[in-house]
Amino acid sequence: MSLGEAIAIMRGGIFQTLLMAAPILLVGMAVGLIVAILQATTSIQEQTLTFVPKIAAILLTVALLGTALFQSLAEYTRRLFELIPSMAG
Length: 89
Hints:
Elements: H1 3-42, H2 51-88
Helix pairs in contact: 1-2
């Protein structure tokens, strides 16, 4: 295995991680921003108020996108396993 191939595998792993984490992180960030704006406009400064909507939104996102994310991860893993024989030689 050459250095270029190793870098390509690492790049693919980082991309796959970002692909799986981005939707969940973006939803959490968007809900957090909306709750923060509502807290600022209503002068409610309860710190625990942000957690429940964030957790609910993240769980809903995982429920809706979980199958697609798992299929993407399974395909990446399948590609990695297909590369194993070429690494041995």
